[in-house]
Amino acid sequence: MGSGAIGKATPSRRHAEGDEHVSAQAVAADEKVQSENVTVRRVRRGTTQARVTTLKGPAGRDFVLLAGIGVASNYYVRLAADLNTTGSVHAIDLPGFGGVRHRDRALDIGDFAEIAGAVIDDLGLDDPVVIGHSMGAQVATELAARRPELTSLVLIGPVIDADARTIPQQILRLAHSALYEPGAVRVLVGMSYAMCGPRWILKTLPRMMRYRIEERIGAVQADTLIVRGDHDANCPREWAERLVELVPRGRAVEVDGAAHSVMYRHAHEVAKLCLLHDGGEEAVRELEPPSKPRHPAMRVRGVAMNVAGMVRGDDALIARGIVTQRHATDMAD
Q1: Sign (positive or negative) of CA dihedral 133, 321, 268, 84
Q2: Per-residue pLDDT tens for 94-112?
Q3: For residue 11, what pLDDT is reported?
Q4: What positions does the domain AB hydrolase-1 occupy (predicted)?
Q5: Class of the domain covering 6-330
Q6: Which of 264, 312, 231, 265 is nearest to 73 (CA)?
Q7: What are the DSSP E strand ranges found in the chain?
Q8: What angle do CA 59, 65, 70 make, to 5 degrees?
């Protein structure tokens, strides 16, 4: 079993990415849209579909990102940029999230894990590092429990704490964590909830509450890293330590000054933790120092394009929005 002691990590901010030129073309044959090294595609299983945004990177380990309940994958933008320096990153928008259409029947965590597995299969990914946040950590855990061939798992702010398994408790804890979140995260999450809509969130929420991650994590064979912010009320330190004790091979790390969405403001530090967890000491050494984009107007325009694409179901616009955000940082250098 893993060690229950939780380590500490020092927070930092994101770094500059490589140069990109904004252009896009639709490839209708396989429902794929590409803009430079950013590809957006759909993966379907029956009436269920997911949208996958891929940032093509150098030859290396692939990373699969799974977001929390009701949230679009665009809040992973900073972490994805850091991980993209060492390999390709595949951010999944699950059914009903980020403007992805869904069938009326509610899906449980197993259903979400099934479509996430379909993404891995359809993209031909060979043992990717699976990273999940909040409810996405539940999906990642279920996926790894079903697929013992997966060898590396990262759970960021995993829920639901067994000592607070009621909706009012979780809402109060989320409100407390939100006090320590950057404004940009609150805006992105708010827009995501609006796109998802209360009906789908209320259908999914009971399934998330009922999923007992503590009963499934013992079936995970992958090396498991649990990351939490020290202000994360939804994933208290004691809860993270309990999960580490239950997983066969695991450890937990706490990031100072971070809250539930630790991978946003502290993306650079979380990326280093993920790479070290995967044995990538050399990749960590090659990470560039973090820097702040000097073209905020272009970055905001990119975010607006990305969100508008999700609302309209325009995958080309989603891709162009991501490239524009990256280009805003490139110009800083």
Answers
A1: positive
A2: 999 999 998 878 999 999 9
A3: 41
A4: 64-272
A5: alpha beta
A6: 264
A7: 6-9, 25-27, 32-35, 38-45, 48-55, 63-66, 89-93, 129-133, 152-156, 223-229, 250-255
A8: 160
Query: Does residue 90 sit in helix, strand or coil?
Result: strand
Alpha carbon distance 280, 61 (integer Å): 10
> CA 106, 108, 114, 120 torsion: positive or negative?
positive
- Reference 89, options 23, 21, 38; nearest CA is 38
* Residue type for position 236: P
What is the distance of C-alpha 147 from the center of its chain?
19
pLDDT of residue 21: 32
Q: Is the dihedral of CA 100, 117, 140, 35 positive or negative?
A: negative
Dist. CA 15–CA 281, nearest whole Å: 18
Residue found under tokens 């809040």: 75
324 or 219: which leads in pLDDT: 219
pLDDT in tens, 201-249: 999 999 999 999 999 999 999 999 999 999 999 999 999 999 999 999 9
Q: How many CA atoms lie within 13 A of 28 on its CB side?
A: 0
What does the alpha-carbon distance between residue 246 and residue 184 come to, in Å, rounded to a whole number? 34
Could you please report the per-residue DSSP string of 55-73?
A: E--SSS--EEEE--TT--G
CA distance 155 to 227: 6
